[in-house]
Write a structure and sequence with these properties.
808 residues; 5-stranded mixed sheet; transmembrane; 11% helix; Ferric Hydroxamate Uptake Protein, Chain A, domain 1; 38% strand; mainly beta
Amino acid sequence: MLLLTALGAFAFRLSDDEFVNRLIARLKTYNQRFPNEKVYVQTDRAYYLPGETVWLKGYLFDGMSHEADSVSGLLYVDLIDLTARKLVMQAQLKAVGGHAPGQLTLPETLSAGPYQLRAYTGWMRNFPEDYYFTRSLMVLETRTGMPEPAVLPAARPDVQFMPEGGNLVAGLESRVAFKATDAGGRGAEIEGFVLDSRNDTITGLTPQHLGMGSFTIKPEPGLTYTAFARQGTGTYGRYPLPAAQPNGYVMTVDNISNKSHIRVFIAGKKPADGTREVTLVAQIRGTIVQAANVPVGPKAVLVQFPRDKFPEGIAQLTLFDETNTPVCERLVYAENGGLLTISVTPEKSAVKPREKITLNVNVTDAEHKPVAANLSMAVTDARQALDPDSNGTTLVSHLLLTSDLKGTIEQSGYYFDRSKRDRLQKLDLLLMTQGWRRFTWPEVLAGNLPEPKYPVEPGLSLTGQVVRPNQKQAGKVRLTFMFVGRDSARSFLTEETNEAGYYSLYGLDFTDTTHVLIQAITQKGNRNLSLTLDQLIKPAVTLTQVPYNPLVVQRDELAEFLKRANEYLAIERQIRQNREILLQEVKVKAKRNETDSRKIYGNADATVKVTQQLAGGAMSVLDILRGRVAGLNISGSPMNPTVQIRGAANFSGVVEPLFLIDGMPVDKQAVLSLPVMDVDYVDVLKGAGAAIFGSRGGGGVINVMTKRGGANYDPSQDKAEGILVARLPGYTPVREFYAPLYATSKPEHIRPDYRATLHWAPLIRTGPDGKAALSFFASDARTTLRFITEGTTAAGQPGSSRQTVRVE
C-alpha cells in the first residue's frame, strides 16, 4: 500500500488489515454525518471610528477539500463587544458559490474599545465555537483615539509543558515542547531551567518564538522533574513537568531536515520483553492518506512518509497500540506547493494626489501557470490604516492553519511569509504546543453518532416547534405563514409540522427586515398552542482568552487618522442631512386612491363584511358565506366543505373557486384555518369578474381579506393564541463602495479627500489567463497606499499578497 523504511532489523507489514479498513470506514461515516465547513472574512481595516463602515467579504469552504462551498447560502457575521461581552450587531450575508460580500455600518453611538468579528454558517453551530472565524477589530474614540486600556494584573507567566506524542515514558528519550504566555494571553519571553528531584539541572529553558520552545529529556524511573521560570526580573515560579509513565510509547517527528519525507521515530516499553506491532496512521482533513503496521520495541524505529502523498495543510499522525487504542498523537504541517502567487502591479510606481491608479492583477499557481481565481482587495492609506502587523491573520493562514486548531494563534501570518527563513521550524514548534480537536478517534470509532442539531442552510430559513401550553406534543399542526416586508408587500405560505411538532421552511429569499406571522391550528381546529422560532435564538457569546494587543502606532499617525476620519464623517453626515431636507421639500399632488393594494381587480360581484354577529358560532369563514352570496353553494362537512360558484363543473366534477388570502393564492385548508375574527371582509368574483385570473379563476374567486393584511395593521402588536409574530432580518443589502471619480470635475470635488479606505473591490475575477485589472483615484494625501489582496480558486487554492504604491 505504501513504501516505508526503517532503522533496525524490523520488517514492516503494509496496513491493509481489518483495523485500518475499519478506521477508514468509520471516518468516512463520520465525515458524511458531520462534514465540516470553514469560513474566512477579509475586512478593509482593523481600526475604525463610530459611524464608519466595515467593508468585508466572506469566503466559505468545504472543510475536507477546501473547494468553494456551494451548499450553505447564508453567512452570519457578528460584532461582539469584548468589554461588555455581548453581541451588538449581526449581518446575514448571501453566499453565492462560496463568496459573500457585505458590510457592517457601525452606529455613531458605538462605544470605543476592542471588538471581535465572528463569522459562521448555520451548519457550523453543530461544532465548538473554536472553529468559528474570528478577527479582532478596534473602535477608537473620535477625539482621543484609544480608551484607557485595562490594567492587567501582575501575574507570573503561565507555562505549559507538552511531551511530544502525548506522554513521557521512563527510560525513553523524548522531546518536550513548552509555551509561556503573559497575563494578556500573548507569548512571553521567559528564562529558566529544569531540575530533577535530586536538584540536578537537566536543561535550560529558552523560548525560540513567541514564548514557545523545546528540549530533550530521558526521564529516569522514580524521579520527578520541575521547571523554574520567570519573566524579566520577576521571581521564579515552579512548574511541575508531566509525570513519566513506567510503560508506553513515545513518538518523535522530524518534519524539517528531509525535503521529500516526513520522518517518524517510534519507541515502546512494555512489561514483557520483545517487540509489539502498532499501527501508525496519517490523516489530513478527515481523509487517511497513509498508514502502516510497525513492529516496535525499546530501540527507535523510523517510518518515512512521502510528502507528495499529502495535500497542503495540517496532518494528524496517530499511533495505535496493539489493542488498537490511540496512544500517541502529533500534528505536522505538510507543505506541498498548494498556494497561489498573487501579484498586483501598479502601472506607475508613484502617482500624484487625485491621479488615476490602474492595477494589473496576475494570479499563478505553484508551477507558475495562470489560474482563474475569485479575489478581494482593500486599498488603504498606510498612515491611516493603523495596522502595522504584517504577520496577522490572512486567508492562507486561516484556511490551512488556524481553522483546524483550537485556541488563538498569535501572528499566524508569520508561518506563511516566505521571507522568514525559519518559518517552518517555528511552525513545527507551534504544532507541538497547539491542540487538535476537530474530532477525537474514540468518538469516530464508537460508531453511534448523534443526529446533527442544526441543518445546512442553503438560504434563509424558518425552523421551530409547536407544542401545547403544557409543553406536551400536539401532533401534526397546520401552519400559515404571513410575511410583511418594509414596502408592505405580503406573501403567504402554508406548512405542516411533523408528529413532534417541528416545522421548517428553507430557501427563503428576502432582503432587510421583515415581519413574519405564524398561525398554528391542530387537525381538530384547536388554536391553544405555543410556538417557538429558532431564528430568535442567537448563539451564546462564550469568549475564550483573546491575546491583548494594545494599539502600537506613532502619535502623529493616530492624530492624522482621527482628524481625517472625523472630517470625512462630518461630510457624510451633511450629505445625509441634505438628502433628507430635499426629500421633505418635495410635494406631490394627486387624488387619493381608495383601492386596496391587495386587489388586482375592480369591484367584486359580492362582498361580505365580517361582523361580530356573523362571526359568532361560525367555525370558519366559509360558514359565514353559506346562504349569504347568490350563486355560491357550500355543502358537505364544515371541516372539508365543497365550494361551487354558479354550477362551475367539468367532466371531472365540481370546479372549485380560486382561494386567495389578501390577494395571495392559497389552498382551501388555509382559508378554513383562518380565525374568523381575523377576517375583515370577503370578496366573491363570478364569471367575467374572475376572468382577470385566467384559467385559475375558471371556477370563480373567493378573496379573504384579513385585518392583519390591512395597510394600518402592525403585526408586532398581535397577541392572539396560537400565533407567533417576530421581526426577522433578511439578507443584508450589499452596498456599493463609493469613491469619487476625478476624471471629470464635479461640484462635490471641492471637498477635501483624506479617506482611510480608498478602494474596496470584493469580487475581482481573473480569467483563465490569470489576469484582471481595476482602477480608482488617489486621495489628497501624499502617502503610501497599501493593497491587500486575497482569494482562492474554485478548487480551494488560497493566496494572499501585500503591495504598495507611493502618492507624491
